[in-house]
Amino acid sequence: MRFYFAAFALIASAAAQDVRPKDVREIGKGGSTAIPQLTEFLKNPDTDVRVEAVKQLTDARALDALILATRDDEPEVQIHATDGLVNFYLPGYVVTGFGSSFKRMGGSIKGKFTDTNDQVIDAFVTARPDVIAALGALVRGDGQNVQARANAARALGILRGKGAVPDLVEALRTKDTDVLYESLIAMQKIGDQSAGPKIAFLLRDLNSKVQIAAIETTGLLRNREAAGDLIEVLNHSRTANVRRAALGSLAMLPDLKSRGTYQRYLNDKDEKLRAGAAEGFARLRDPADSGLIEQAWKDEGKTAPRISLAFAMVMLGRTEINEFSPLQFLINNLNSSAYKGVALPFLTEVARDSSGRLALYTSLATATKDEKIGLARVLSASGDKASVPYLEKLSRDTDPEVAQEGLRAVRNLQARL
Q1: pLDDT tens across 132-150, in order?
Q2: Is the pTM of this model over 0.85?
Q3: Domains delineated in the chain
């Protein structure tokens, strides 16, 4: 009997080894009932079979098996598993994720990360801790394929994986640009301010892409200890985008000691530096600066700094709503494909103050479709209990896109509250 059992096991093992990717695809049509068999294929020595198994497990939404696949020795399997985990929480991600675009070149994989990296799951969605832990282990792993590590870092940002912040900090020890950049952007999305001081050494990185990401992350994580470093970078860098990022981040760290710096750049020939200076004055919120800012607003002819100056005037108390008011100017720019990404975060800051929220409520009555969608996002991020009825009204809007955004905003606000 022992002989026959061993022989049967050997035959079954041989059959499993002979399976082809197209066989895995066929089995995958069984959906959730096929998960045990697909999981078994993750042990197959053929990379193509394991890759196909991961793809089918993604379709079957098999989290436990996808977590297992992140530990595979083959980067291609790890990347598909990572994208599959994100896809569970952000349906459709696998169509645009890194795994959909890279190619196998001999014994390695080649691909390029997209420049667009603004995806993040809603506040009412929470990834399982073991998913975050698996991705954290992958991004941290020395000796692992750098593209698999960078892809895991991107995934952690999308999933707001706060539990993996120590892993992202550890990943910054690498010299690979993609891993560094994706880890920094993930920290921005997660927003854990405790990580701010731990990235200070990258503020002078020789790669401008990494340096700018580190500078921006410093501001977003409110690391006030780095203000001196940012001023030094601003004063000595010869790269325009680096200097703009340094002033922009310094503007996120309001300090009266920086007022002279803001004033120096308020009339600079570089419009983006003028914008950064205006944002600094906005967050200082010193009424004594109102005249200076209003004059700059009247003199400014470029849209980008005008938006920042409008933000400054609103933060200094100009919350009235009329055709030519600075707050209405901010709201109007929600209709602009070029500038709504600038206006939206400014309005989100404005709405943190009760007077700002009240003004935004009144603007909803005459708002355009794009303005309603933008303001729904603003109130979901900065609203309070009093904002719920306004968002509920948007959820019943006659425009289906507005209604969908209103419902989503209600859920995000309630999750945050």
Answers
A1: 999 999 999 877 899 999 9
A2: yes
A3: 319-417 (1.25.10)
